Amino acid sequence: MDCCVIPLRHGGLSLVQTTDFFYPLVEDPYMMGRIACANVLSDLYAMGITECDNMLMLLSVSQKMNDKERERVMPLMIKGFRDAAEEGGTSVTGGQTVVNPWIIIGGVATVVCQPTDFIMPDSAVPGDVLVLTKPLGTQVAVNAHQWLDMPDKWNKIKLVVSREEVEQAYQEAMFNMATLNRTAAALMHTFNAHAATDITGFGILGHARNLAQQQRSDVAFVIHNLPIIAKMAAISKACGNRFGLLQGTSSETSGGLLICLPREQAARFCAEMKSCRHGPGGPLGQEGAAEGQQAWIIGIVEKGNRCARIIDKPRIIEVPPRGSIGGSQEGGSNNTNTPSPSDIQSTVVN
User: Fold this and answer.
1) Does the pLDDT value for residue 280 go beyond 70?
2) How confident is the model at residue 11 (pLDDT cuts 50, 70, 90)?
3) Whole-angstrom distance, CA of residue 146 vs CA of residue 220
4) Over 240-262, what HEC string results?
5) Contact at 8 Å (CB) between 157 and 8?
6) If both were cysteines, with which of 117, 171, 223, 260 could 195 make a disulfide (CB 3.0 to 4.6 Å apart)?
7) Sheet with 296-303: strands ordered across
8) How many helices (H) and strands (E) does the chain have?
């Protein structure tokens, strides 16, 4: 599971707790702080928990930084982490700071809750569909952005993408990583989700396999659609699939939730996600928050031996960065509409 769930001695309550930390992967210290906090909270959200009682911050200051760098970078990173925690309805009350060769940021999220507050990730049944709440491709976008200043690497991808497109993809990836999965967690209860996990270091396929292995029923997850930040699939191909993006093994940071939903509920879940306002633009439900987040039906749950796979020729859904026009599906029409469960069912490869 994404969190530990510990029954307490008092009143049928459970302690739910998670921790995570990592090294910076974007240039903006403030956004890095937000991403780190969103990543920690995402483990709670993957279990349908929308409230967090307390957060601790884990921070490592690099001994290679001079005083000026430290005074500029670290307060921004701390502020980003705290702001994201506040957006999630919680606060940072303590933690630990150390000095070592690397910058590290992370945290611990804790909540005490009733059994009805969380959804155990083990109840998927044949006939469910798989929904993903953020596009894939963050690892490719971050690396491609670094390659803008590395001629040997840039020369490998410049024929399939422009510098402007790389910059737009990087900004989109950064925004997505900093967006909390809190709205999706709340809607999991509304639409009777059967199981969920968040997509991070093992990639979409790795986490789908982990989730499938947790199920009580004999099921298999079959992924038919891969929503990917625009141009990242082309970059991955140009690099000889070094990231494993199209194979589902590319690492993600603070990715979306992969949710098993009843077939009849999935389209409404996606529509509700789109209509909600949330994200780093402002607190959930408040004026100034970002526009609704897109979600996609990406696969089906069928009878099987608790495994997961991607079909041989999945539909690649190009997700355009905010502010750009269009988007396309390989081999399909120029749109990014969420495929219906019936669309997915018709593409099953026997």
Assistant:
1) no
2) confident
3) 37
4) CCCCCCCCCCCCCCCCCEEEEEC
5) no
6) 260
7) 195-198, 257-261, 129-132, 296-303, 219-229, 307-319
8) 10, 11
Q: Token match 């803008």: residue?
A: 148
Q: Average pLDDT for residues 88-103, to the nearest whole number?
A: 96
Where do we find the tokens 């897109």? 294
Quick one: CA torsion of 172, 173, 179, 182, rounded to 10 degrees?
A: 120
CA distance 350 to 341: 17
What are 4's strand-pairing partners? 17
Averaged pLDDT score across all residues of the chain: 91
DSSP sequence for 17-37: EEEEEE---SS-HHHHHHHHH
pTM attached to this predicted model: 0.91
Helix or strand (DSSP H, E) at 160: none
Contact present, 230 and 321 (Cβ < 8 Å): yes
Q: Is 50 exceeded by the pLDDT of residue 289? A: no
The answer to whether the CB of 208 falls within 8 A of the CB of 223 is yes
Q: Report the C-alpha gap between 100 and 299 in whole angstroms.
A: 44
SS3 222: strand
Please tell me the distance from the alpha carbon of residue 307 to that of residue 85, in angstroms, as a whole number.
35
Which pLDDT tens digit goes with each residue over 297-341?
A: 999 999 999 999 999 999 999 999 986 655 445 543 334 445 565
Choose among 281, 283, 220, 226: nearest CA to 256.
Answer: 226
Q: Which two tokens stand for residue 278?
A: 């949330």
Top-ranked range on mean pLDDT: pick from 270-279, 284-293, 301-310: 301-310
CA torsion 76-111-279-314 (nearest 10°) is 110
